[in-house]
Specification:
4-stranded antiparallel beta sheet; 2 domains; 190 residues; 10% helix; mainly beta
Length: 190
């Protein structure tokens, strides 16, 4: 529902007069909707009563609160077998034109003492069986054509997040259709 406004479900603790509730619109989190709430009486303030007002979820853009608009855990069914984002493309893509030079800079390899160990076209399921039987990605179809590249850096590879990995074997999976990096693995060989 595009008109639906999702209110943050919290309990507001008011010690003074407060009569508005702010909520973000689902499609535009920067937009604000103001809803009127009951006023706290002067007697409650004078007596210093603590008044807790619930801010409810399920407010529509016209300000009507309805139970049917309130999302809950049971309102969505779990898809235990989702369609992969990278769908099967065997026979649909010409992988013979895809070359290792398209993704690897041999100049950079030489500069960093890297040695190309593997550059092979295969399906994602073949890769899993041969190199990574314990891991699986539900985003990639088993019949997706990929390009597997392995490079050995005997002097080490400097990873942006973990620093230097000595005697490192870098494995990269590239999508044949888009040349996008699908997975990468950094393994210390000693």
């Amino acid at each position: 529902m595009k008109n639906k406004i999702i209110c943050i479900t919290i309990f507001a603790l008011f010690l003074s007069i407060g009569n508005v509730v702010y909520s973000a619109i689902k499609d535009d989190p920067t937009a604000i909707s103001v809803q009127k709430m009951p006023l706290i009486t002067k007697e409650q303030i004078i007596n210093k009563d603590r008044v807790i007002l619930p801010i409810v979820s399920g407010v529509t853009s016209d300000g009507v609160i309805t139970e049917e608009n309130e999302p809950n855990a049971d309102s969505f069914t779990l898809n235990s077998n989702p369609d992969p984002y990278f769908k099967a493309n065997i026979g649909k893509v010409d992988y013979k034109n895809f070359k290792v030079n398209d993704i690897i800079s041999f100049e950079s390899l030489k500069k960093n003492n890297g040695k190309l160990k593997l550059a092979k076209v295969m399906t994602y399921s073949m890769y899993q069986q041969m190199y990574s039987p314990d891991s699986i990605s539900h985003d990639i179809s088993p019949n997706r054509m990929i390009y597997v590249v392995q490079i050995h850096y005997p002097d080490g590879f400097h990873h942006a997040k973990v620093g230097l990995i000595k005697n490192c074997l870098v494995t990269g999976l590239y999508d044949i259709e888009t040349a996008q990096v699908l997975e990468s693995d950094f393994e210390r060989l000693d």
